[in-house]
Amino acid sequence: xxxxxxxxxxxxxxxxxxxxxxxxxxxxxxxxxxxxxxxxxxxxxxxxxxxxxxxxxxxxxxxxxxxxxxxxxxxxxxxxxxxxxxxxxxxxxxxxxxxxxxxxxxxxxxxxxxxxxxxxxxxxxxxxxxxxxxxxxxxxxxxxxxxxxxxxxxxxxxxxxxxxxxxxxxxxxxxxxxxxxxxxxxxxxxxxxxxxxxxxxxxxxxxxxxxxxxxxxxxxxxxxxxxxxxxxxxxxxxxxxxxxxxxxxxxxxxxxxxxxxxxxxxxxxxxxxxxxxxxxxxxxxxxxxxxxxxxxxxxxxxxxxxxxxxxxxxxxxxxxxxxxxxxxxxxxxxxxxxxxxxxxxxxxxxxxxxxxxxxx
Length: 360
Fold this sequence. Notes:
The protein is mainly alpha-helical and 360 residues long.
């Protein structure tokens, strides 16, 4: 009987120790998961919108790499209910902040950034890419921005305000009506009640300023503003320097003037809604829609822009370098090679492959 009691006692002691160990492991894990993500103190702009609450911020904080775990973030909130109400506005956070520090900052209005929401859109981004940045920087859902930039009734209402917006953007084949018209730049927005329309119209205002010096040239030219922006969007992704862009523009004009297909891969990526880092399939190449200029039966420009081009590419579209080339290809160092016929073109490609410079 004594041995049995002793055995039970040992089991209870073991169980007690096991519970203590488990509690310690959980405590250590909890402390670790609510600690700072890294030691990086680089500021990150974070926007708290009206209607947000502490719990709803978890996913966006994780997406911005400001917390390690949404689960432990919410567990912390459950165990430590914030004393202050969440205050909407713009805050500067960083990865070196723990969950308790982040909560403390977000609950104090005096910590709000006075500079507003600062967003940089680089040249060559398309509407889908811009929407991702808007969500990350301004907290506006990606699908909301895309829907607004594609809303034909909304875009139609903007036409009287912006001379460069015409019914060409309302073509049913166009993916996003305002693609190509959102000028790439750095913007600062007031975070209070910020909407997709606020961002879009601020960008369109900038487009108006940037295009104004070219208005007369565009209106008196062979191609309308929609076509110029479409051509500029191709040039933007095909070349990096001003000189190469003007040369590429000349090649495209040579093909257009001789009723050739433009044969531009970047249009095929856009047609397939793929990023340039992804792989094109045979189906993608052969899909003859309004954008894919690799389709041999397609002549002329795509139905609309495939990205939002820089002023350099717009200038190149308006002022091409006259040349006798019909082909070009870039190597891994972004150097562009121009050739007159398919045979020369294939020779250059083979040479680049042999040298390990083929940017397929």
